[in-house]
Design a protein that fits this description.
15 helices, two-stranded antiparallel ribbon, iron, 3-stranded antiparallel sheet, Cytochrome p450, 9 strands, oxidoreductase
């Protein structure tokens, strides 16, 4: 299905439901830690939080209570990763022979069958209700319905089988896996750089005056410091150094005469570009508020670099001439392609960004956190597999509820 961005109006509609689900998910993931530190694997915690909080937004209330679905949403991406690692050293022409014998492939096939058994009846039921033109029928407002509507708008006529497969890929790879990685990286960066916690905590408190449970898309959008920190964390540890992978289907002649033959594998070096000194000042310095729009936020940790005039709002400056619209976590530019580029950019990035902010807002405001082992101010090393960058999956942390929170 051709990508189409999920618009901000749709995101605004579902965020209250995400917050509602997160409230119960947090109670399950971080129970009774007011007076004592509890030991948590953050990657496992975030996977569960994402799966629980987004399931209702994907296809209604029935998913959030389906434990088998939650397990599939949490583990399918792991099986995909294992399969890639095991098949990568094998020549392409031999992979179809070896793949069926891999335990991870058998698990994926079983999970796909489960997803189809789950979603196909939903899709058929919804289409029958729409075709019947029952005046009392109201279309659900969830991702499954949006995909069905997009399919009809584009005359792609995707069958229930294909739509069910798309839903599995969307939930497990595009939502659960990538969000878990981003949250883990961001939390590790926060613990390693504790000077950012105070300013972020102040911003969360200020932008959510009615309490975390009343968070909306509009209030989360006001969290420019957190948005900037997310973008800088992603710049240093993106999902992959390369993205936008494509295989040439017919010869392409570039402007300099170079011809890309059929079957050529092309991609963008998104990681190196985002760290290129030609586009960014001090590219190898982690500057969590680098992308803030207001000088008061940009220089909150280093007021001496701004001067009183700027801090008092006399003027605003964006680094290297960047416009405000290009400096958001979800912005797509030719130097920030971690969400893709052009019409093929990630269609759910606005929803993902709001979900990440909602989770991090709660953690920053309501909890204290630290590594179980003293790493001497260092960050747990990433796991680099080819061009893919993963956070440490084994690192454990300690959490404790703060006395005062929302």
């Amino acid at each position: 299905m051709q990508n189409q961005t999920i618009n901000l109006y749709q995101v605004a509609q579902v965020i209250p439901g995400v917050i509602d689900e997160l409230r119960a998910a947090f109670d399950a993931a971080l129970p009774e830690c007011e007076d004592t530190w509890i030991r948590i694997n953050p990657c496992e915690m975030f996977t569960r939080l994402i799966a629980l909080s987004t399931s209702r937004m994907m296809a209604g209330d029935s998913l959030r209570e389906n434990e088998e679905w939650l397990n599939v949403a949490s583990s399918y991406a792991v099986n995909v990763g294992i399969t890639i690692l095991l098949l990568r050293p094998i020549p392409k022409y031999l992979r179809p022979i070896f793949a069926p014998f891999l335990p991870s492939v058998r698990k994926m096939k079983k999970q796909l069958r489960f997803a189809k058994d789950l979603f196909i009846p939903m899709i058929n039921e919804r289409r029958m209700a729409q075709q019947a033109k029952d005046p009392n029928y109201t279309k659900p407002n969830d991702f499954l319905q949006w995909m069905m509507d997009l399919s009809e708008e584009k005359n792609e006529d995707l069958g229930p089988d294909t739509l069910a497969h798309h839903m599995l890929l969307l939930v497990t790879l595009a939502v659960t896996h990538t969000s878990t990685m981003a949250l883990s990286h961001c939390l590790f960066d926060l613990v390693t750089r504790p000077e950012y916690i105070g300013p972020l905590r102040e911003e969360v408190s200020r932008t959510l005056p009615d309490g975390w449970y009343k968070a909306t898309q509009a209030s989360l959008k006001e969290q420019s410091r957190l948005d900037s920190f997310l973008r800088e964390s992603q710049r240093f540890a993106p999902p992959g150094e390369l993205n936008f992978h494509r295989i040439v289907k017919e010869p392409i002649t570039l402007h300099d005469g170079l011809v890309l033959p059929v079957e050529t594998h092309i991609c963008f070096a998104a990681g190196p570009i985002s760290k290129d000194g030609a586009f960014l000042k001090n590219p190898f310095v982690f500057d969590g508020f680098r992308w803030c729009h207001k000088p008061q936020d940009r220089y909150v940790l280093t007021p001496e670099l701004a001067g009183p005039a700027i801090l008092n709002g006399a003027g605003e400056k964006m680094q290297a001439g960047k416009s405000i619209s290009s400096a958001y976590f979800v912005s797509i530019t030719n130097t920030n392609m971690h969400f893709g580029f052009g019409v093929q950019a990630c269609p759910g990035r606005f929803f993902a960004a709001n979900t990440l902010k909602a989770i991090l807002s709660r953690i920053i405001l309501d909890y204290e956190f630290k590594f179980v082992k003293d790493l001497g101010g260092k960050r747990p090393p990433n796991l680099v597999v080819g061009e893919h960058i993963l956070p440490s999956m084994s690192t454990e942390m300690l959490f404790r509820k703060r006395p005062i929170g929302l």
